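Lecture notes, unit on protein representations.

Consider one protein chain, 256 amino acids long.
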Amino acid sequence: MADIESKSPFSPYRADGKLYGFVCVVSGADQPVGEAIIYELAAHGAACIYDSTLTLIDDILNTWGRLDVWVCSSGLLGPPSITNTTPADLQKCFEANTYAPFFALKYAPPAMAKLCEKRNYPNAEVKDVKYGSIVVVGSVAGSYGGCWGPCYTMSSHAALGVVRSGVAVLKGSGVRINCISPGQIDIGVDLNNFDMRGMTSQLPPASMQSKESQKSTIGLERAGLPTEVARVAGFLASGFSSYITGANLVVDGGAS
């Protein structure tokens, strides 16, 4: 790491892991996990963070000259049973959980390959090395079934497939792609405010499981917090994870 740092001022090689100069995109900013990720990237020194939309890429490059991090944090549960699942529900879940990572894999890397001189904005840095990090926030439902309904499980498996296929796609580009698979996360929603069809929520409310159940099924005996998922996203965005790609980091408190 010391040899790499001596050759380039670009921030992925900073010993402190800061994201100075980074321009980031985060989808799902209106959901608890996405919001926490935005705060985490800002705390690491990111220069700018956009709420995700593919049409922004040209605007980002014209304004900032670079793109460094793309976090796919939007998601949809879908209905809890196959009986209540329509083909339209399945389509919506795949659009939310799988299409977004696919489009990030397809369109973000060419923008991340752009190099630029140091510009006149806070925390600006030179980008003289091809670098990028794509982070997909999925679910433990991407590894096994029974977490919720079939829409959620199927589309979460497919999202992890995007990450694993991305390793070969991104070879030689300087861009990494990884998945975060949260388990039970307390998103601050109780059952009284929850749509049981799952068409407006990313994760099920932790209140669906009692404290006693959490203690018996989770190694750390509690639900996780959005900030605890966000810290992993910050790690994967930074140079601290420079030799990690194609990985699935499970954040479930030891439940699996």
